[in-house]
Write a structure and sequence with these properties.
Helices cover 94% and strands 0% of the residues. With 35 residues, it is an all-alpha fold.
Length: 35
Amino acid sequence: MYAASYLTWFLIPAVCWLLPLVGMGLLFLYVEKDA
């Protein structure tokens, strides 16, 4: 149980950081491919 709750608190900031990074990366690739 402890490991699961610890993992959740680690995942929340990781998702908050990774999702925008992935989104910006995909947007960059989309723009580069389009141009």
